[in-house]
Amino acid sequence: MPAAGILFFENRHLTQSCDPFSLFNNQPCLSFGKNSMAKLVIIDDEAAILELMTKLCKAAGHQVFGCTTGIDGIAAIRANQPELVIVDLRIGDVNGLDLVSMCRDQFPNTAVIMVTGHGSVETAVEAMRLGAFDYLTKPFDLGDLIKTVNQALQRNGGSASTSSPPVALPTGSTLRSGSSSKLIGHSDVLQRIFDIVRRVANNDSPVLLEGEFGVGKHIVARSLHEASRRSNASYKELQCSAMPEDALETELFGPNSIFVRVAGGTVHLTEVTQLPARIQSQLNTFLDESQAKKSWNAASGADFRVVVSTTVPLEDAVKAGKFREDLYYKLSVVPLKIPPLRERREDIKPIVEHFLKDLAERTDSKVKTIDSAAVEFLEKYNWPGNLSELRNAIERACAFAEGDRIKPADLPTKVTQQIEVPTPSVATGITKLPIGSTLDDFIKAQERVFIQETLKYNSGSREKTASMLGVSIATLYRKMGLNVERKTTV
Fold it and tell me: For 289, what's the count of Cα atoms within 13 Å in the CB-facing half-sphere?
């Protein structure tokens, strides 16, 4: 009999990969393979998820036994000896690691796949030490779940094939997502990112993604994968700061490492600057050896693409002596900086509209609209938490809105509150800046006020104003937000 597989399912929000950028249309392969019927036991105490997983697996042609408790699930495993078991890690009456140990002892051929959150990655690695086949970290795409199941069945003698036609979701079933799977916007800076993704998608060179917390680096990484020739293989993400050094070493370089399990797909290493020095040295050597095996066409070499990301500029870490310079050059073949929201404010409105639609779908409610005055506040705020902070603000606004329209009063106070800065030379005597504005924002605002007052004194002559302020006419135009080709008088 083919080896059994156990899938630990801890994620409360399945996500379906669809259009990671609005420019790409690659859908995940929801395929278990042709003639791949297997017995499955699904254990989950959340009825909606249990029903969805059961319908999906039945649609793929499998015989499925659904259970809402761990005790019933264990009984079903023993009675049916399934090829695959899907179980919520936290179902209350059974400890996940104990169940792994039980299967290892009583079903020696069992392959284990765990799905868990970043906070439990160490637990996932411990499960692998106990014999688990693989794990997925949330939030994850349904396509990744299916691909990993396929790999488990293939590795252990099953007949699953990722090349067979995809299996459609059962009629009436929906997937709810806790986060956006798109990078939204029409700004020039974002369009340049889209263009780079298109050009390098099928280039196996390592990609370095840099940007502040919450800018969407993981979205870009996934989009690179989905737009590439590797899209039918797995995409796996490893947070380098989420586990102890020994566990991290096992996950990166062990016999069943993440590079092996990705099976022709993409490995995304997040917060790569957090890698300990010893692991950096090992990774540097590993990448050298992997490249040599590719050059030799060695069958034993793992096939993968590496994408790394960091909130701290990697070059700065090199200069500070915290990151190997030779490893930096290996990982930064294609560097890509993801801009913060404050550098693409014109994208905020379409992002907000996307979040409103996404929230309405998740809550089965009517899509709310947003008042133009509220949008103006959102566009002025600096969003230090970027997309994550904006998404939370929109969800809060939807919760506080009395009707179907979001108003400024529904937004978080820090977004609408403004600082009143006395400016004696201005007619109103006050300049208002939103909370969260930078010192640079304040200086620029004061510069504009001073320039306007000097222009009035010089009867609108920009040449006299530039001379009086001691700047070039080009600098004056730039600070006023004007084109230098315009006339020099008003």
Answer: 11
Handedness of CA 172, 175, 180, 184 (dihedral sign): negative
Q: What would the two tokens of residue 192 be?
A: 């340049």
Domain 1-176 -> CATH class: alpha beta
Q: How many CB atoms lie within 10 A of CB 74?
A: 21
Alpha helices by DSSP H, listed for 297-428, are 314-319, 325-331, 348-363, 372-380, 386-400, 413-416
In terms of phi and psi (left: phi > 0; alpha: psi -120 to 50; beta: otherwise), the region of 161 is beta
CA-to-CA distance for 462 and 323, rounded, in angstroms? 50
CATH fold for the domain made of 418-480: Arc Repressor Mutant, subunit A (1.10.10)
Please choose, from the candidates 47, 39, 53, the residue with its C-alpha nearest in 3D space to the C-alpha of residue 8: 53
84-87/39-43 β-pairing: parallel
- Residue in 179, 190, 241 with CA at minimum distance from that of residue 214: 179
Q: Could you tell me which of 69, 77, 70 has the C-alpha nearest to residue 4?
A: 77
DSSP letter string, 85-118: EEE-SB-SSSBHHHHHHHHHHH-TT-EEEEEE-G
Q: Which residues contact 368 (CB under 8 A, 6 or more apart)?
A: 356, 360, 398, 401, 404, 405, 406
pTM of the model: 0.67
d(CA 121, CA 261): 16
pLDDT digits 0-9 by tens, 283-329: 999 999 988 887 666 555 678 999 999 999 999 999 999 999 999 99
Nearest to 317 by CA among 308, 326, 328: 328
Residue 171's pLDDT band, with cuts at 50, 70 and 90, is very low
Angle at 28 between CA 24 and CA 30, to 5 degrees: 155
Q: What is the pLDDT of residues 33-92, one digit of tens each?
A: 444 577 888 777 778 777 877 887 787 777 888 988 888 888 888 888 878 877 777 777
Regarding the domain with residue range 183-339, which homologous superfamily does it belong to in the CATH classification?
P-loop containing nucleotide triphosphate hydrolases (3.40.50.300)
Instruction: Give the gyration radius of the chain's Cα atoms.
Output: 27
Please name the residues in contact with 59: beta carbons below 8 A apart, sequence gap of 6 or more: 167, 168, 169, 170
Q: Where in the chain is the domain with CATH 3.40.50.300?
A: 183-339
